[in-house]
Amino acid sequence: MKQNLYSTKGSFELKDLDQGKREVAFYLSKFDVMDADNDVIRKGAFTKSIQERGVDSTSNRKIAFLRHHDWTKQIGKFVNLEEDENGLFAVGQLGTSSIGEDAFRDYEEGIIREHSIGFKYVGDKMRFIEDPNIDGGGYYEIKELILWEGSAVTFGANEFTEVIDVMKSEDKMNFAKKCSDEIDVLVKSLVNGKGTDERLFEIEMRIKYLNQKLTSLANVEPIIKDHSIEVKSTPEFEWKQVLDNLQIV
Questions:
Q1: Maximum distance among all Cα pairs of the chain, rounded to whole angstroms
Q2: Are residues 73 and 183 both part of a single domain?
Q3: pTM, to two decimals
Q4: At 67, is the secondary structure helix, strand, or coil?
Q5: d(CA 112, CA 73)
Q6: Quick one: 27 and 150 in the same domain?
Q7: What confidence tens digit (pLDDT) does each residue in 126-137 have?
């Protein structure tokens, strides 16, 4: 069962580091391989996202290069995003800001070795393929994803979910409060509408990301990937419901 909100997946090793150009090359996703979510992503799944918001697009909401899927931590920009026979290949150029410099040092010292994508499922572009030889009874064939960002991560995708699982109740409440407070601030900024389109888009993505954290915390599943051809979308949940649930518990 999956959320159809802001999802993350991946865990792919660094391919190359060009220190002179401050560029890193890596695969953000692999094709035709079943991952831990029982998903098999097919070639072409990222074509539309690359066309609409890739490196050569005219969009002001380009696919972002982040650290830990955090929209407040853009460590650089992608200078190449393309699908080849193996998967989604990326070349990112690290910025000269403090977080870009920190990321560059972490690449040099081997601290960053893995990468992950932030995306959304497209309901009518995936289907469940039954196979009794696979745990779960089969796999999901993914023909299209909406790609928002690619991230450098210390650990594999969904790393925060495991941390949430072992939190004490009071820590969960504090964590939820912190996320909800930040959402309040971000929503007000979004409503004010001040700044560039890029800034407003980053705020919107940050809200989606925090919503995902709260969803994981409360174990709310507003949409379920079931064994069907089509998966229908439902509106994102209200974060206040999360706090109410936690207080009841």
A1: 55
A2: no
A3: 0.69
A4: strand
A5: 15
A6: yes
A7: 999 999 999 889
Tally of domains in the chain: 2
Packing angle between helix 169-192 and helix 197-218, nearest 10 degrees?
160
* Helix/strand/coil percentages in the chain, nearest 5: 35, 30, 35
User: Measured between alpha carbons, how far is 76 from 69 in angstroms, rounded to an integer?
Assistant: 13
Residues 117 and 187 both lie in one domain:
no
Over 70: is that where the pLDDT of 244 sits?
Answer: no
Numbers of helices and strands, H then E, in the chain: 6, 11
C-alpha–C-alpha distance, residues 9 and 2, integer Å: 12
My answer on whether 88 and 135 are in the same domain is: yes
Whether pLDDT at 230 is above 90: no
Q: How far, in Å, CA of 46 to CA of 145, rounded?
A: 6
Residue 111 has, within 13 A of its CA and on its CB side, a CA count of 9
Query: Which domain, by its residues, includes 174?
Result: 162-248
Residue among 160, 178, 198, 175 at smallest CA distance from 70: 160
Provide φ and ψ at 158, rounded to 5°: 60, 30
Average pLDDT, stretch 67-82? Answer: 92
Contact 154, 112 (CB under 8 A): yes
Provide the 3-class DSSP secondary structure of residue 172.
Answer: helix
